[in-house]
Amino acid sequence: MALINAVTTAESPAETLGPLLASFNFKVDVPLTSDEVEALATWARGLRPVFVEDDQERAIGLLNEVMVDVPMQPHISDHGLGPHLHYGRPGAGLVDRVRANTAVALAFVLCEYGGGRLGVCADAGCERVYADISRGPRRRYCSKTCLNRNTVAAYRARRSVPQGEGPA
Ligand SMILES: [Zn+2]
Ligand SMILES: [Zn+2]
């Protein structure tokens, strides 16, 4: 989600993508090349409809479609982080590693939690997506910031109506 949000909402994805991917433990040579940035942006835009789609079966179909072109070869790797699973081919470039790992992560959420847990923020002015893997009621906002802003707005709207003041 962070990748999708970075390329669809950030002002300068070129500068933000490298550190972002590094923060998810991807091995990244910064700065990214413009080809890498473009390929990652294309990939993220291709994944976004999976979050937008409300129908679970269609969301699964969309994800299966984008995964067709991703070279996958699951293997265990240990580059100083302890043994963990990589989904792309050994020695794959950054773009293919990101594509393989994000596709599988999204597939995992879809299978384990259902498409209802993937969505686009309900805030009118926000286009960020989220994957909600918490227990408890389904969330509708990308962040506490958006949730709080809308909770306050709804509270004010409720209070202002009976007093006949109209919206502030
Ligand atoms: Zn790794
Ligand atoms: Zn939001």
Verbal overview:
There is one protein chain. This protein is mainly α and 168 residues long. It has helices at residues 2-9, 13-23, 34-52, 56-67, 94-113, 144-160, and strands spanning 75-77, 84-86, 118-120, 129-131. Helix 1 packs antiparallel against helix 2 (13-23), helix 1 packs across helix 3 and helix 4 runs antiparallel to helix 5. The longest helix has 20 residues, at 94-113. The relative contact order is 0.12. The mean pLDDT is 87. One zinc ion is lined by residues 77, 79, 81, 84, 86.
Element layout with pairings:
Blueprint: H1 2-9, H2 13-23, H3 34-52, H4 56-67, E1 75-77, E2 84-86, H5 94-113, E3 118-120, E4 129-131, H6 144-160
Bound molecules: zinc ion (ZN) (2 copies).
One zinc ion binds at residues 121, 123, 126, 128, 141-143, 146.
Main sheet record: 2 strands, antiparallel
Helix-residue proportion: 40-55%
State the separation between the terminal residues, measured CA to CA. Answer: 34 Å
- The dominant shape is globular
Listing every helix as H and every strand as E from the N terminus to the C terminus, the arrangement reads HHHHEEHEEH
Strand order of the largest sheet: 1-2
Short structural summary:
By secondary structure, the chain is mostly helical. It has helices at 2-9, 13-23, 34-52, 56-67, 94-113, 144-160; strands at residues 75-77, 84-86, 118-120, 129-131.
Keywords:
single chain, binds zinc ion, globular, two-stranded antiparallel ribbon, mainly alpha, two-stranded antiparallel sheet, 168 residues
